[in-house]
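Input record (Table S2, row 349):
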Amino acid sequence: MPDSIASLCAKRFSLCLLVILTACSSAPRKASRKAPSPAVLSYDYVLGPVRDDAELDIEATPRDKNPAVHLRRAWVMLQRKRPQEAVDACALVLYGPETPSTQAEAYARFIRAEALTTQGKTQNGDYDRKRASELAMDQRLRDRIEDATPIVSPDSTQRPNPVGSAPQVDMHTRSEWQPAALIRSRLDPMGKIYRITVHHSAILLRSPSERSAADQIRSIQNTHMKKEGCGDIGYHFLIDPSGRIWQGRELRYQGAHARGDNNRGNIGICVLGNFMRGRDGQRPTAAELNALESLIGNLAQKHRIAAEQIFSHSDLVNTQCPGTYLRGEVDRIAREAAVPARGRGAAAD
Ligand SMILES: [Zn+2]
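Output record (zinc ion complex):
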């Protein structure tokens, strides 16, 4: 008797199980064939295989708040050998309106690392890869980061930046922004250059045009000369939202950007825009950050400037400059671009 009850129960149970399994396996499969995969921050969505050109149509506006959409787009762009677009899409996550979650940042840094390596910017790629590996929690992502094989081979048309050489920088000369004549009697010689300080102009600038940049630079010079009694614009270099680098005050003259003695031997770089939080604030563009990175890299190599000597204005005096959105980037760039302090190893012992 107990046997037959048991077998009856078992039969019923397996019948029920069969019904449940059939229901589970057939219904959702039909549904999933029609529904597009949801944009979620997962390994399968972001780093899933890139199959056809249709995926190029992923529309991610800079205002899209879901980081998964930007990250998927970045990944698709990277697979399509469009690394700069991948870098830009990652920048929307890293510097977008919302502070990224740890996992969003891990994916963004991993994809950007691959894209930068593809562009020959190995040092920057290595930094992002290291950060991604510190942040990543998904085991498959961790494994992928560990696997150092480049996903897309370096593009031979991109100029590599060999370790130890100063990055190339294209400069717009002073004459291109039509400056007012400088007042030499108000200028001091620069002396030995040993540090760099980064500022923002604290004036909103959304236009990518050359002309708006030149206008803003001229207006800064006007303020510095007429209201602050300077002999020229206070900064040595300025960077606009399209990543153009403009020559300001000549380097042979000490700058007027960091107050008093802080200006000694100190190169002043001003990134055009207002990088404070709030309604009138903006995020630095990827082009601006790339230019800042190249410029600092170039100057640090040329003048043997150590990472410890690369500052945000707020490191030197009590000020909000260069704004919340730029300050962290300056720290990152300083770590990557600066040359190691000479003799530091020997001195430490
Ligand atoms: Zn400043």
